[in-house]
Amino acid sequence: MFYGWKISLLSMGGNFMLQGSVLYCMNAFMEPLCTAYGWTRAELNISMAVASLVGQLAMPVAASLSTRFSLRYLMTVGALVGGVATILQGMTGNMMLFTLLFTIAWSATQICGGVVGNALMSNWFHYFRGRAFGIANAGTSLSGVVLPLASMVLINHFDVSVAYLVIGLLTCALAPLAWVLVRDTPQTMHLHPDGRRHEPMMGRKRPAPDTSFSGLLHSPRAYCMGVAFGLALMVSSSVMSQMKPRFVDLGIAPYPAMLLACSAALCAALAKYAWGWVCDRFTPLTAAHGIMLACALSLCLGFLPASVWTMTIFSLSFGLCVGGLWTVLPAVVSYYYGSGNFLPSYKFVSIFIMLRCVGYPIMGYSYELTGGYGAADMVFVILLLLSLGLSMYLREGDAVEASARRRH
What we know:
20 helices, globular
């Protein structure tokens, strides 16, 4: 097996333990935390919003660090910091301290997996880059299949602190694996991208745009790309993080509700590879247009009359659509600006992912004011259609790797 696939699986593990624990595990922790400490869902959603905001601000920071330090070193440190922060989350009943630790764990997601994992995939793959991004980022959704249900069992048999302890220790265990396995580029092992016998035949490329921060700051297309994916990821994270409470509120028993949430996460994991295949088979921009439209249509299914069957259709279809967003985003950046400009351009675009944090208060206050998530869903559908419109502004002819893709 090509060594790059081993690194993609390790990146999947980082996303599984950290991205999944900060996002999906709130399906299991939200109600027990409220019961144990007297917190409200609105307060917890604000805590998630703050942690998410700082976590998204950590994306450009992680991109900058990736240009200065070894990716191997960063991946190792990220696992240790994120694991310890997760353990300590279960040891406090103070909301401010919980939010601080939550913020540290969320920031570590960009180092162990996240930005560093995407940088590794961009280095190790070319023609199979979309699928590599898909495998690495599938860990986030796969964790939604396993970790919330496992956390729920641990909470029911022990308590919240034990559940956080187990997740944190498993995260720390990734550190030695990262140190042993990660290599920054295939060239350091006398290999070539995709496991080929030579460097990729790139053909004639379109001249790369100015990917300095100043250059991107004056590029309308960079703003369109960032805002489009920022809004789409806002909807994805907000809805997927609270699937189980949504279904319980609609009258579904807790364990079936959790199974529905886990099924949505499983579909999202499968979707990451599937949308990666679409990026490789067609173009990442084509995949971007398709996924924005599919996300809006699938969210509309949430307005169907509530029953186990309609909510099953909603959860599975929504997972199959939104799951590919984290695959398509890095593929679009690498395709549009060129693999050699991936980190500086991804650094700029990632600034707009902080929009993701706005969705949690929208969810929380929709519940507090209306007793459900319907009002939030209406806002989210409108924002997804706006994302589609913004993505249409990105044209194939402007992509740096467009000619190379046609030749391949």
